Amino acid sequence: MSTTVAAPAMDVTVTSLVRRPVADVARHAADPATAEAWLPHVLGRKLPLGFELVSFEPTHGMVLRSAQGPVALEATYTWEPTGAWTKLTLRQTGEAPIVGLAAPLIEKAAAKAMARTVARLVETLEVRQAATA
Question: Superfamily for 9-128?
Answer without folding.
Answer: START domain (3.30.530.20)
